[in-house]
Amino acid sequence: MKSSSRRFSEFFIPTLKEVPAEAEIISHQVMLRTGMIRKLAAGIYSYLPYGLMALKKVEDIVREEMNRAGAIELLLPSVQPGELWMESGRWNYYGPELLRFRDRHNRESCLGPTHEEVITDIVRREIHSYKQLPITLYQIQTKFRDEIRPRFGIMRAREFIMKDAYSFDIDEQGCNRSYENMYRAYEAIFRRCGLRFRAVEADTGPIGGSFSHEFMVLSDTGEDEIVSCQRCSYASNLEKAEVVEQGEKSSVSEEERVFQVVDTPEVRTIEELTSFLSIGPENVVKTLIYQTESEPIALLVRGDHSLNETKAKNALNAEELTMADPDTVLEVTGAPMGFAGAMGLKVKVLADLSLKGMKNMVMGANEEDRHVLNVNEGRDFRVDQYADLRMITPEDPCPRCGGSLQFGKGIEVGHVFKLGAKYSNALKANFLNEHGHETPVIMGCYGIGIGRTVAAAIEQCHDENGIIFPISISPFEVIILPLELHESRVREVADQLYGQLSDNGLSVFLDDRDERPGYKFKDADLLGTPVRITVSTRTLRKESVEIKLRSSPELNLIPLLEAATVIRKTVQSLYDSLK
RNA sequence: CGGGGCGUGGCGCAGUCUGGUAGCGCACCUGCUUUGGGAGCAGGGAGUCGGAGGUUCAAAUCCUCUCGCCCCGACCA
Predict the structure, then answer these.
(1) How many H-runs (helices) and E-runs (strands) does chain A carry?
(2) Is the CB of A319 under 7 A from strand B?
(3) Class for the domain spanning A20-195+419-459
(4) pLDDT tens-digit profile of A307-320?
(5) Entry pTM
(6) SS3 string of A439-454?
(7) CB of residue A77 closer than 7 A to nucleic acid strand B?
(8) CATH H-level superfamily of A476-576
């Protein structure tokens, strides 16, 4: 008998009737109610048996697809020496998210939030020749990131399980192939998990690297905003989405009018300004004073646009970018916040492309309670550099094909990066190429949040009664509910079916608790097992059992003699639908 | 870290303003009845009221400090 089959009475699934107050989103609520997880501390969870089973289902799919793609599994330590992080330069860069401590010998250590350093260390020690490349290594392991604010249960925990893979190639072309290969494996993985997802272009963040895609599960509870093209396959994280400036703006051909200062008492925001002056926000230049790690700078965007800090950071090549505090604003502009303008600024000025050539704009006068009208670049202020600095809007066209864009939310469950030689250079992971030259290995890295994938699946597949598991990640494939345990025939048939299906390799959950029918139905719905079999005196009167899919309200009777076969086929067809 | 909120049997909450025997629903245990959508009756067990200090004849309740958790923001796979 397959060991994954279980009897409720001999298993441990502590279900909850009421929703714990701490849970906000559906997946968190339902994972607590089904007894999948329990919280130990903020962002730290115990996985109870039912939750662990779901995690393992996802892990198994990930392993199969990674192995199929030629990746090789290993397991790296979670405690890592600080030394290695100092060598890569991330000891200082990573910040408080990296949980650091000293061991008894007073050696700096940390809990691994990711494993580029460790894996690169292995490769630098063991790989010396192009003949050993390419290679892709992966692990499924617990990570720790000391998040400022963990939330949504397992969705954004401090301790979490992640599959991380790292590819090593002799050159860029090879790395691109490895990247492609992983990208395709990811598509296969999430498809098999029964998820509606989209791969989007993304910023690389602190992991670094040259380009990257995020795999987003489409869900309104997602924390990331994504845009996708309705016509072509373009999809992107909102913060990464390029804006293509199209055509000439109406005001570009205008005559430059006479510069004019106006009194605007207590008018600070764009809304206040546009209603005070009765103009449209597109005629206003927003002057934002920011602070990088080295200097204050001014960023200009149009009044109806918002600044994309990621783009600004990249355009400036800055490591840090934060809104300047009121004192800095006063120092740079000579005015309190709300009246900043670009005229006469000593700091570097970057402007969004949409402002290029715009005439007779309105901006702050760098003087309290004053704005200026008819401001023109060149004549009245200077721009050091034009760049794509703003957030894309629903009015903007697709940067690839010009089609219209759709905005939505997503949960990031996977991320693939092309790292290039960032870590191999820092850690001197070199090999000898076929010409005998020492060359850095070219790396890629690829993560999947295992727990987050389970949570995202629940977020996407549920109804008011509980989970509707895609069969591929459901802890059990079939749940059997014998309704009247005191009836020996009911119990016998249920037991027999349980044994028979289990022997056939199905994972079956037998609810053999002496509970009333309603209670069992509710729990079965909560747990979300795809196929439900009910055995009762009523069904046995017709020498049948009842079959119902969790995903459909339809009830059907199947004759006892055919039951096992029909159930097997039903399960199989559910798997087939995920291919 | 800034703003807001909450800590009272396992879970969900009332009681705190106005100090005076610690309560309700669910869950749990025993018995009987009940059995197709979270049963009924009867009986029962279970709480340092987050912690420390203080005020008071008397503190869940008032004061001070502290810890934990949740939400919003900044941050982030």
Answers:
(1) 15, 32
(2) no
(3) alpha beta
(4) 888 888 888 887 77
(5) 0.88
(6) EECEEEEEEEEHHHHH
(7) no
(8) Anticodon-binding domain (3.40.50.800)
